[in-house]
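Reopening: structure tokens for the NAP complex, inputs below.
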Amino acid sequence: MAERRYRVGVVGTSWWADLEHLPGLRARTDVELAALCGRNPERLGALAAKYGIPRTFTDWRELVAAGGLDAVVLATPNALHREQALAAIDAGLHVICEKPLALDLRQAREMAARADAAGRKTLTFFTHRAVGAAAHVKRLVDAGFLGRPLHATATYFTASHLKEDKPLAWRMQRAVSGTGVLGDIGSHLVDLVRWWLGDLARVAAMWQTVTRERAGGVADADESCAFLAELASGAQAVFQASKLVAGRGNHQRVELHGTKASLVYEADPGFDPTWEGRVLAGTPARAGLEPVPLPQDLAARLAGVDERSGRAEAYRRLTDPFFAAIARGGPVSPDFRDGAAVQAVLDAVARAAEERRWVDVEA
Ligand SMILES: NC(=O)c1ccc[n+]([C@@H]2O[C@H](COP(=O)([O-])OP(=O)(O)OC[C@H]3O[C@@H](n4cnc5c(N)ncnc54)[C@H](OP(=O)(O)O)[C@@H]3O)[C@@H](O)[C@H]2O)c1
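Re-run output (same inputs, fresh job):
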């Protein structure tokens, strides 16, 4: 029997759509790139030609209303996610939505509830679950490698906001981003730690905005954020996300410490062309960490892959459960419920930073 092909529309024509979603979807044999929406007609036309997409729209509402799609990818600024996702679900579409899922928990929960009620499949696009090392840490933790988890440290560093001439962008304005670095890159850390160790229960936080005057206006969103977290399991964690770290490209490092062993996850997604990352492990018996080889199925598909093919393989891993769930039912992880659970942490961290106190994460 011929493989079913899902007709997918993409909303957003930015660098990110061109780097991640469009090549990733084109590489899937079960997807037909059927429609594309962007506000800039020249850019829209150029990307439609590059990826062979037959139908184009400059208004996302028209793309949704036009029909003929099974699923839509929302690669648009955070402030648009709620309205676009609800409209797509109401039109019967399955939805992949970028992270952070929404501006706040209320919006995120509304999106998840609407999808559940309509029986639509969803995926919150937490890219870094598809890094080989991240997926291997998940397997090791689930197999009991750590023993009882005791504590974790999680950092995500880039240098992008050290450029004082970087102009104002929506990510720097809380009204349209929700939060700054916290939602943009901290959300990935929260998702990974929650995926590996379970829900976060309460947080204490601080954040800072170093360059407020930018070309184009005033930035009010955090450029670095640090917080302590107590997990529902009783384990403790320290998080720091910052775009003010000279020498860092897109660097993530998470240490997990348990009664039997430690695990270290390290990756520079996008800078490491394989998207494999590294896993290191330590035991109480000796000082020092040893590299843990990745199993074959989590290593990059090709040795010496170019940047795009490592990325496309990671894209396949992340989106496989979504398309499988459309075909055969069953859950997707991370879905909108997971996106909302991460959003609950982001809201609690923002409140903790503003009010300088411990805040419970809404369950
Ligand atoms: N998962 C990851 O690792 C990852 C990485 C990067 C980004 N993201 C997420 O992806 C999303 C988009 O980020 P980005 O960097 O691509 O943002 P961006 O560069 O601002 O591009 C967003 C796209 O949405 C379009 N858009 C903006 N306002 C619109 C409106 N009112 N109606 C219709 N389209 C509109 C933009 O069109 P114009 O070009 O006309 O402005 C552009 O095509 C964000 O949620 C971000 O957090 C995730």
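The first helix runs from residue 15 to 26. Residues 12-14, 16, 38-40, 60, 75-78, 80, 98-99, 125, 127, 170, 184 surround NAP (CB under 6 Å). Marking as resolved unless the reporter disagrees.
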